[in-house]
Structures are given as structure tokens and as C-alpha cells.
Amino acid sequence: MALSVPAIMKTTAARLSALYLLLFALCAVLLVFYMTSLSARMLTAQTQETINDEVLGLARAYQRGGLPVLVRVVENRSRQPGANLYLIADANGQILTGNVQSLEPGVIDTEGWTTEPFSYKRFGEGELDRLRSGTSDQTTAPATGDNAAQQAEGEQGHNAIALVLRLPNQMIMLVGRDLGEPERFRAVIRRALTLALGMMGLGGLLIWFFVGRAALKRIDSVSEASRRIMGGDLSGRLPVTGAGDEFDRLSENLNSMLARIATLNEGLKQVSDNIAHDLKTPLTRLRNRAEATLSGKHRPADYRQALEGTIAESDQLIKTFNAILMISRLEAGYSSEHTNRVDLAAAVRDVAELYEPVAEEAGVSLEAEVNGAFLVDGNRELIGQALSNIVDNAIKYSTDSTSKPAVRVALERTNGEIRLCVADNGQGIPDDADRARATERFVRLEKSRSQPGSGLGLSLAKAVMTFHYGRLDLLPGNPGLSVVMSFPAREDH
After folding, report:
1. What integer is the mean pLDDT of 49-65?
2. Which 3 state secondary structure label does DSSP give 421?
3. Which end of the chain offers a freer environment for a tag, N or C, measured as fewer CB atoms within 10 Å?
4. Residue 144: pLDDT above 70?
5. Which class does domain 338-492 fall in?
6. 69-113 confidence digits (pLDDT tens)
7. Of the CATH numbers 1.20.1050, 1.10.287, 1.10.3470, 1.10.10, which one belongs to the domain with range 233-333?
8. Cβ distance 295 to 306 under 8 Å?
9. Mean pLDDT, residues 155-173
10. Distance, CA of 369 to CA of 167 (rounded, Å)
């Protein structure tokens, strides 16, 4: 989907890119001026130091032999390659010796350092220029006064700084140094930094064009997927490219959230369906019992028996609703129950002691094998309720065993987990699909429904294990069934 420039500039990515580019350009420009001015100041200071050394040398020559020695030294030094600027003039500004042909007017009028760089021409440069241009073959005498001013105005010379000294006999000496090297150095630095600025700016624009457009496309795809999900398609998921970046992590987290929401919605739908179908039968039975009791004449004992049955049936319905509510809260990850350190061995001993009379009455051998302490983080009441439901189921469904009915409860630690296993030797659940369905709400695999129950015991146990970040496994016991509650082992530091 193509975006216009105004639309692109409304995006956060484009605004941030423009702000960063502007800030970078400002910093780069300031850096260019700072570096060029710093380099110029450093070279100027170095030039002044060199000129001072030259002046000291010339002063020693003047002290040693007066003006003739000074003139001879100046002439020798001015002829050397790469020499500084040397000039000796009389009190009227007439150039007597040196390698300077002409000066900008007013340079030698003031003693001391020149306040600003001045233009000049070296001795012989004017003639060389005319020879190259073919305009004249005449020699040019050193320019003085108005002639020097005219040449300085008519021809562009070099720039230099100099130290002007007035000798005791009122003669003028100038020692300077050309600024061509500092200026060239400054120009090189300016060009290099300007080129670097241009390249980095171009690189920033290219990066924004490619990376920013890719980010905008991914945001558009996320928005499109979000619109489909908001339209009611909870099976839709946000795109994940596999790059592992922030967009992928956000999409994965949102996809996990959507999967969780879909699971909760499915659970809510199942609860509604189960309430509509499975609870309709006991309510109908209650109504029929009450109607049968009211019709005809009965003894007071019959009315009492009917009311007691109604109360018992109502209590069972209340237990069923409480179990449904607890399962829903646990599956949603919310519970007002507190978690702390729980010893599974103590919980197993309590449940075994509670169900020992029940097992004895049913003719079932109940055995608990517990050695030592097995600590987990959880809620003891929830764990005890889940274990009670499993043990109760094991006692009920082991009575159809061909041999002596027996239920065995064992605890073991393996692979960083604590496994609580409840095994019976009954008929079991031989089919894998039936074992998977056994943990669903209101599912009862017993066709005859001869055993009491609502089909919520294993569902509640599974929800309790999910709340404790564990799992519930139904395994074939050969014979019988083994229900395994696997808890993550507590790490005590």
C-alpha cells in the first residue's frame, strides 16, 4: 500500500527519522566549522612560533654585524626553497631586499603582528605570469608605494601573516609566512567533512527508505490482521517473519494472548453447553420428584423422604456449580487462593487417611508409598481437592477388577519433576482418544452411569495442575489406569 509524503510524515518512524537527520546535520555542520577553525588556529600558532624563531635568528645576525650582515642573511634565506617571507625596506617603504615583490598597502606601516592576513606577491611572480600569458617580455622592477598598491589591486596574490619590526636606523624588517598550507589544509578538512556529511545523510535516507518502508509494511500487516481479529475471526494471528526482532516478539506475545483468549472463549462455550445439557437432567428430575410428591395423597414420611431427596439433589447441583466455577477460575489463571510451600507427602498421607474407610467399605486395598518430603510451590487445599477426586475415581472404578481391587498412591522425583501417581487395577481406559476426552467437563465414559458423579473430577484436577504450572497425564496401567500429577520441583537456595 503506497503512502503519500504527507501520510508518511504522519508516522512516528518518519518523524523520528527526520528529527534524527536534522539533529545529525546540525551536529555535523558544527563539527565542520569547529574542526576547520581549530586546525587553522593550530597552524597559525605554529606559524607564529616559526616566525618568532626566525626573528630571533635575524636579531642575532644584526647584533653580530649590523645591517650588512642582516641583509646578507636575509638574501641567503629568501633564496632557499620553501623560504618564509623576508623583506627589508627603508623608512619610506622602499623595498631594499627580500623575496617579496609587492604588499598590500598599509602592511608595514604598523609595527608588530599583522592583525589580519594580507595579500602579497613574491619576487618574480608578476613577470612569470606575464611570460605565461605572452603579454610582455619585460622585466619588472620591485614595486613600491603606489606601484605596489596597483599591482596588489590588479593581480591576486597570496595571503600571509607577518611580524613587522622597525630597526634602530628606522629601517623596516618584515618576516612572515605564507598561509597557503593552512588554507589548503582547512579546505581539505572542510571538503572531507562535507563529503562525509553528504554520504552519511544519503546513507541515512537510504536506510530510512528501505528499513523504514519495511517497518511500515509490517505495521500495516499487523493492523490488517488486527482488523480481521476485531471483526470476530479469533483464529487469525499476527504475522511472524522469523527475524526475531521487536515486531516478532510483539506478534508472538499477542498471538499467545489470542490463543489464550480463544481457549477461554472455547471453555466458556463448553460451560454454557454443559450447563444447558448436563444440568438439565438433574433439574428435570427434581421437578418430576416434586410434582410426583404433590400429586395424590401420601404419608408424612413420604413427603419427608421426597424433601430429603430434593435437598440431596440440590446439594449435588451446588457442588457441580462450585466445581464449574473453580475450573473456570483456575483455567483463566485467576484464583484468590494463596500459594506457598506444600509438602506433597503430607497431602498424600492426609488423603489416604481420609479415604481409607471408604476404600475398606468398598473392599478396595488403598496403599500409599511415601518416603521423605516432596516440596512444591502451590496451594494445599487445591492440590488436596484434586488428589481426592482422583483417589475417589480410582476407588470407584477399581471395584470391577477381576482380581482383588487395589489403589496405589506413590511419589517420586524424576527429571526435575515430582510425580504423584494414583494407579488402580480396574478396567481402565484402553482407548487413547477416550483417555484424552476423560479430562473434559461432564465427560463420563461409563455407559451405564452406575457410579455416582458429575464428570468434573478429572477436569478439576487438570485445571489445578494448569494453575500449578504442571500437567495431568492419564496412562494405561495394564491393568487399570494410572493418573499422574507432575509438579515442577521446588528449588531451595
Report:
1. 86
2. strand
3. C
4. no
5. alpha beta
6. 888 888 888 888 777 888 888 888 888 888 888 888 888 888 888
7. 1.10.287
8. no
9. 80
10. 118
pLDDT averaged over every residue in the chain: 77
Name the residue ranges covered by the structural domains of the chain. 3-124+156-197, 233-333, 338-492
Q: How confident is the model over 18-48, as pLDDT tens digits?
A: 777 777 778 877 877 787 778 777 877 888 8
Q: Return the pLDDT at 422.
A: 93
Flag whether pLDDT at 123 surpasses 90. Answer: no
Does residue 5 have a pLDDT over 60? no
Give 288's Cβ-side CA count (13 Å radius): 6
Separation of alpha carbons 247 and 251, rounded Å: 6
Is 143 in a helix, a strand, or coil?
A: coil
Q: Which residues of 375-386 are buried (b: 16+ CB within 10 A; e: fewer)?
A: bbebbbebbbbb
| Fold classification of 3-124+156-197 (topology level) | Beta-Lactamase (3.30.450)
Peptide bond into 282 cis (omega under 30): no
Question: Which residues have CB under 8 Å from 167's CB, separation 6+?
Answer: 62, 67, 173
What lies within 8 Å, CB to CB, of 26 at 6+ separation is none
Say if residues 239 and 52 touch (Cβ distance below 8 Å): no
Per residue in 428-459, pLDDT (tens digit) is: 887 777 787 787 766 666 554 445 556 677 88
**Do residues 215 and 245 touch, judged by C-beta distance below 8 A?**
no
**Please, which residues bridge with residue 161 across strands?**
177
Whether this model's pTM surpasses 0.70: no
Q: Which three cell numbers stand for residue 259?
A: 490463543
**Cell triple for 215:** 517497518
In terms of Cα–Cα distance, which of 486, 457, 491, 493 is closest to 469? 486
- Burial (CB count <10 Å: 0-12, 13-18, 19+), residue 191: exposed
Mean pLDDT of 218-246: 76
The answer to whether domain 3-124+156-197 and domain 233-333 are alike in fold is: no
- In this structure, are residues 475 and 429 in contact, taking their beta carbons and an 8 Å threshold? no
- Cα separation, 72 vs 84, in Å, equals 15
Cα 291 from Cα 457, distance rounded (Å): 31
